[in-house]
Amino acid sequence: MTLAFEPSTLTCAVCGDGIDSGYLPVTGTDGGDEPLTDAAACDACGFTAVGMGGCAPELDDLTDDPAADALCHVRFTGDGVEVLRRK
Length: 87
Ligand SMILES: [Zn+2]
Prior knowledge:
This protein has helices at about 45-50, 60, and strands at about 20-30, 30-35, 40, 70-75, 80-85. It is an alpha+beta fold. The protein has one domain (about 20-85). The site of zinc ion (ZN) has 8 residues, from β3 and α1.
C-alpha cells in the first residue's frame, strides 16, 4: 500500500477545500499506486455528497476514469500521506 508519489496537497473535487483526510482514487502500477488527484474528495464530501446516505464512497462514486483501480482513504500527516485503507 504505497503511493508512487505523495501529493503535497490535495483539493476536494466536490467542495474545493484542501483535504486533511479523504478519499483518493489510484491507478495500480509496478511502482506503486499512482494518485488520481483530480478525483479526490474530503471526508465530509465523501460521506455526504458522494457516498450514499452516510456511507463511505465507492470508487465508482468518485471517478469513471477507466484507469482507476482502487480507492484509498488517505490522511495527511506531518511527514506525508498515510494510506489508511485501500479497496
Ligand atoms: Zn469536500
